[in-house]
Amino acid sequence: MNDTTSTPLPNTNQAYAEAPAVTSQSRPIRAKSVWVGVVLPLTVAVLLAVAQPFWSSYLSDLVVKIMILSIFALSLHILVGGTGLVSLGHAAYFGLGAYAAVKAAGQDGSNFLVMLGASVGVSGLYALIVGALSLRTKGVYFIMVTLAFAQLAFFVVHDVGYFGGSDGIYLMQRPAIGPLDMENSRTQYFVVLVSLVLVYAFIAMLRHSRFGHALAGIRVNEQRMRAAGFATYGYKLAGFVIAGALAGLAGFLLAARDAVVNPELLAWHHSGEVLLMLILGGVGSLRGAVLGTVTFVLLKELLSTHAVMGNVADHWQLTLGIAIIVLVALLPKGLVGINDKWQKKALVNKYNGQEAISSGANHG
């Protein structure tokens, strides 16, 4: 049956007008939503800021890496969790952002804003080109087209001498603006932390905007959204470009951290890894994107460390694969699903308790 014959979407103003008043039962739910969506992330950010002076250089560098990859994962969340578009080419925007930053720096100096603008602009532009073509396909064809464009970008930077070939290119001087010089590891840490907080807040606001609701509607039923008058192609393309630009931001931060870029950043397995991060954390959840990144990076770090795993560390890809399979099997809804299970169990216990009290009162 054609979905265009289904009941049209309700008028938004009417829906708000007919919405029920806030009751005593809905207040705890709203309070919990504010706690999980706002207070908890801000608390974690403050703790990360306070803890930095007490960490070793290794641990501080590891946290910076996790935060950069969290931005990368959050950018893909716009496509996978927000719009229902599974891309296997997202590493292209990440890598191109890193290359653009290094090329924009030049030999004489590294201007922070110029490098940042180049990274976001180049990645966003390539995402616009890829999205304009790939979004005309669906399903597995869309996945393959995004992968093809990512491989195209990979071989361009790998084979063209301008990009340094397989060895890549070095950043002679890390970006700086005013007192913020990313040659300083502490400055680097806080610039990345602030970037993560801003990206997280931006995507959270985007999800609750009219634009975000339109993307969610497209994910659920694109045909119905089109029948309701939404230009779904334009919405998807805009989301695709935003996701690519934010991946470019992550690439800029990585280039500033490592001071070197190479074609490996655009490799297809990085696109697969960031998709795994979303699956591990829970597709459709901002917290899940960050939790999945933390879990994936720590697992990879742990399983590849000889001091912990001994000779088994030589086969860390195998043990990491087994660990991921086990986690996905045990937690099909990701790490955020654990909290959902606890909430559901608490609600069932509360309901059973209320039923028991009510039954006792009636018998009495």
Write a structural description:
With 364 residues, this protein is mostly helical. It has a domain at 57-267. The protein is built from 14 helices and 4 strands. The protein has helices at residues 12-17, 26-51, 57-83, 91-105, 112-134, 139-159, 185-207, 210-227, 232-258, 268-281, 286-303, 306-309, 316-330, 336-363, and strands at residues 169-170, 176-177, 180-181, 260-261. Strands 1-4 form a two-stranded antiparallel sheet. The chain has a two-stranded antiparallel sheet with strand order 2-3. Helix 3 (57-83) packs across helix 10 and helix 4 runs parallel beside helix 6. It starts with 11 loop residues before the first helix and ends with a helix.
Short note summarizing the structure:
The protein is mainly alpha-helical and 364 residues long.
Topology summary:
Elements: H1 12-17, H2 26-51, H3 57-83, H4 91-105, H5 112-134, H6 139-159, E1 169-170, E2 176-177, E3 180-181, H7 185-207, H8 210-227, H9 232-258, E4 260-261, H10 268-281, H11 286-303, H12 306-309, H13 316-330, H14 336-363
Antiparallel strand pairs: 1-4, 2-3
Helix pairs in contact: 2-7, 3-7, 3-9, 3-10, 3-11, 4-5, 4-6, 4-9, 5-6, 5-9, 7-9, 8-9, 10-11, 11-13
Radius of gyration: 23 Å
Helix count, per DSSP? 14
Helix-and-strand structural type: mainly alpha
Broad shape:
globular
Oligomer: single chain
Q: Uncertain spans, ≥5 residues at pLDDT below 50?
A: 1-31
What level of helicity do the residues show?
over 70%
Mean pLDDT comes to: 85
SSE arrangement, N to C? HHHHHHEEEHHHEHHHHH
Distance between the termini: 55 Å
Biggest sheet strand order reads 1-4
Strand proportion, as a percent range, falls in: under 5%
Main beta sheet strand tally, sense and closure: 2 strands, antiparallel
Give the total of beta strands: 4
InterPro entries: ABC_transp_permease, LivM-like
GO molecular function, one term: branched-chain amino acid transmembrane transporter activity
Subcellular location: Cell membrane
Keywords: Cell membrane, Membrane, Transmembrane, Transmembrane helix
